[in-house]
Amino acid sequence: MTTMRTPPVVSEQEWLEAWREMLVKEKAAMRARDALAAQRRRMPWLAVDKNYEFEGPAGRVSLLNLFDGRRQLIVYRAFIEPGTGDWPEHGCQGCSLMADHVPNLAHLNARDTTFVYASRASQADLERMKAKMGWRHPWFTITDDFDVDFGVQDWHGTNAFIRDDADRIYRTYFVSGRGDETFVTTWNLLDITALGRQENWEDSPEGYPQDPPYEWWTWNDSYAQHRPWRWFGDPDPDDPHDQRPPRPDTQDGTVAAACCTDRSH
């Protein structure tokens, strides 16, 4: 076992000095983030001219209906659907982790903003999965080219929209990959701890516990019997009838271009 090369133990005065130095850097990063948000608010708008339809708990609805009367709409494309995770028990592990962090939406709604999830699973499957996993946020079924047109047909991502007084809809922002991790409180909390996320891409002192990303998290009801992460299309090691070979792009350990992998590590 490698010994952890921990930072020095210092006096309270030395600790406060180190904390103040860190605070200066954190405030600089916060101001840079504020400046980036200001730039984001000045992004050009893209008119949405197609009429997209979704299936909801009460039947067919349009993209405009998803706004639920509010000015802004955020749509996260989640891969909770056939062909993901160990369906029909669960969907994609990463998208499930994201769903676990959706907050009480009353605060977002108070800012005239609606937040929904969209997947290709049926409403019956989504309602079943929500009940099983404890999710309560609005979730709609994609029925047309929405995912293709907005860059989320085979990769998770978040699109933001706004509507004007004439109910014309505009796309205002898009983020995917590690950009979505802003919405995961678990990672933000781990980032302030001494050990961090404990993933092997992080720059940590020698000997700190680290695992490959995507392999330690799982569905919220499965940590007791946690199974290793399996890429989309890979054979199921627990299914003796699944004789498919591993995907060519995962045999050497490289990251496959599929939902919930991350190209930026």
Describe the SSE topology.
Elements: H1 12-41, E1 46-47, E2 53-56, E3 59-62, H2 63-66, E4 72-77, H3 93-99, H4 106-109, E5 113-119, H5 123-133, E6 139-142, H6 146-149, E7 157-163, E8 169-176, H7 185-190
Q: Which key phrases capture this entry?
A:
single chain; 265 residues; alpha+beta; Glutaredoxin; 7 helices; globular; disordered C terminus
Average pLDDT works out at 88
What is the percent of helical residues?
Answer: 10-25%
Label the CATH architecture of the domain at 46-183.
3-Layer(aba) Sandwich
Structural class: alpha+beta
Low-confidence regions: 247-258, 261-265
Structure description:
This protein has 265 residues and is an alpha+beta fold. It has a domain of 138 residues: Glutaredoxin, CATH 3.40.30. The chain is 25% helix and 16% strand. An 8-stranded mixed β-sheet has the order 1-8-7-4-5-6-2-3. A hairpin with a 2-residue loop joins β2 and β3. The C terminus is likely disordered.
